[in-house]
Write a structure and sequence with these properties.
Strand content: 5-15%
Structural class: alpha+beta
Radius of gyration: 17 Å
Number of strands: 4
Largest sheet: 4 strands, mixed
Bound molecules: glutathione
Strand order of the largest sheet: 2-1-3-4
Helix content: 40-55%
Number of helices: 8
Shape: globular
């Protein structure tokens, strides 16, 4: 049995989406950021980093959204979140999950959490550097999709598209939203049309793209 500690629209989204795609039973526990619940003693006992997501599997806590996506894909191969082990597409799947997690999500974290870099607000040069890095990553993904899309692995949807679309969503109020790149916009449209995305919006109470 799974329990997902989540906060609406955050990094827990990709894990929530994966669980919805799988269609297995799971429990949701909302971590109320407006009450700083991620730093409560009760939550820190579960996840000492004070972040979401946390996924409890049979009572044991696991962290890191990309790792949780891979873990769920492995535990539920029938859901098709990952191409089969040994297939040509499987290495690409690992590669893109690593890229989105390392190159993109980590940079987003700095963008949204200046205190991680020791500042209340980023100095303009740091902000510009983070923006350039994120936009450069999106340009690379857009070029890949133009050549090999419409999904990250070609014609086949996979969990990496959920990760990509969550990250695209986070850019919606940034100076250059990811959906300004045509192939990215197309991918976002495909993922947003999925029942899992619609259900997540309903359950998490999200309205904005
Ligand atoms: N690398 C982690 C990052 C998780 C993360 O930064 N979560 C944010 C929400 S998107 C969070 O919990 N923020 C609350 C805080 O840091 O106080 C992952 O992918 O799971």
């Amino acid at each position: 049995m799974y329990t997902l500690y989540y906060s609406p629209g955050t990094a827990s989204m990709v894990v929530h989406l994966a669980l919805l795609e799988i269609g297995c039973p799971f429990r949701l526990e909302k971590v109320d950021f407006s009450q700083d619940a991620q730093r409560s003693a009760e939550y820190l006992r579960i996840n000492p980093r004070g972040q979401v997501p946390t996924l409890l599997i049979d009572g044991k806590a696991y962290f890191e959204s990309a790792a949780l996506l891979m873990l769920l894909a492995e535990r539920h191969p029938e859901a098709g979140l990952a191409p089969p082990v040994g297939s040509d597409a499987r290495p690409d799947w690992y590669q893109w999950i690593g890229f989105f997690s390392n190159a993109m999500a980590a940079t987003y974290r700095f963008w949204f959490y200046p205190p991680d870099l020791g500042a209340e607000e980023h100095p303009p040069a740091i902000r510009a550097a983070l923006q350039a890095r994120i936009e450069n990553c999106w340009a690379q993904v857009d070029a890949h999709l133009q050549a090999h899309g419409p999904y990250m692995l070609g014609t086949q949807f996979s969990g990496v598209d959920l990760l990509a679309t969550m990250l695209m969503r986070w850019s919606r109020n940034m100076p250059r939203p990811a959906t300004e790149w045509p192939a990215l916009r197309q991918l976002a449209g495909l993922v947003r049309a999925r029942p899992s995305w619609k259900k997540l919006y309903e359950v998490e109470g999200l309205t904005e793209w």
